[in-house]
Specification:
single chain, mainly alpha
Length: 271
């Protein structure tokens, strides 16, 4: 994935997304989110750059949602802990939420709720071509990406394992099964509401997800909780306030939250 990222510089990504049909742009932006292992807060600067480069608003939101929620770290950790079926379903539904939410926000034509100074910005150097890389350079970039990702991720993994161990050792199984089980219709919206004020990335939350499932929580409820933590976190909303007006942030949270609720109920119904 680190080598693949060397083909997608910010400049090239902006050019790829700018001027696209919105439906095509939503799909491309969500797919690009997979190869950018950003948490929600670190994806915001790229979001601003896309807006400044003329990328449609809905397309930029598809990227903002997919980048933290559906990246290689989340997919690999879910695969390792829960198997390929859960990882594949999570990736497919996460991409679906990002694409549909971006498309809906784009159709609402809410550009007037972007702060004026953002619309006035034009990406510096956005038209310059990045230096051409040979395969040795790309492999070196991949190695640096591994060191960078591992360096950033390991504290979150340790913290997540610690929280998961606490849940596993001290929370009674029956309590979680009753609160986050399939029988309680309100468990999915409650999980989303509880997850929003929290902040973590995929590496930190996946061990917690595993511990909750071990205690009898329903898969859909737990994954809705995970999605809300990494895609609708309160710190992300605070940073977005610098570039978006309150009404657009509320619409973003409602559209994405509704998508996450549907995913949670879908997983609980079919698995």
């Amino acid at each position: 994935m680190g080598v693949l990222r060397s083909f997608f510089t910010p400049e090239r990504t902006r050019r790829l997304l700018a001027g696209r049909n919105e439906a095509v742009g939503n799909v491309l932006a969500a797919l690009l989110g997979i190869v950018t292992p950003f948490c929600s807060c670190s994806a915001v600067p790229l979001f601003m750059g896309f807006l400044g480069a003329g990328v449609p608003l809905g397309v930029t939101f598809s990227f903002l949602i997919a980048a933290p929620m559906v990246n290689e770290i989340a997919v690999v950790l879910l695969y390792g802990l829960l198997g390929w079926k859960v990882a594949a379903l999570y990736m497919a539904t996460g991409l679906g939420v990002a694409m549909v939410a971006g498309f809906v926000i784009g159709k609402l034509r809410m550009e007037r709720y972007v702060e004026d100074w953002v619309l006035a910005v034009r990406a510096q150097g956005g038209q310059e071509d990045a230096p051409r890389l040979d395969w040795a350079d790309r492999l070196d970039a991949g190695g640096r990406a591994v060191r960078e990702i591992v360096g950033k991720v390991w504290p979150w993994v340790v913290a997540g394992i610690a929280v998961g161990a606490g849940i596993h050792g001290y929370v009674p199984e029956g309590v979680l099964a009753s609160i986050m089980g399939r029988a309680a219709w309100w468990s999915v919206p409650m999980a989303v509401v509880v997850g929003i004020p929290m902040y973590s990335n995929a590496a930190g939350i996946v061990p917690v997800v595993y511990a909750l499932l071990e205690k009898g929580a329903a898969l859909g409820t737990v994954l809705a909780f995970m999605m809300s933590v990494i895609a609708l976190s309160l710190p992300e909303m605070v940073i977005l306030r610098k570039v978006l007006k309150v009404r657009l942030i509320i619409v973003f949270a409602l559209v994405v939250g509704l998508g996450i609720l549907l995913v949670g109920y879908l997983f609980n119904a079919v698995l």
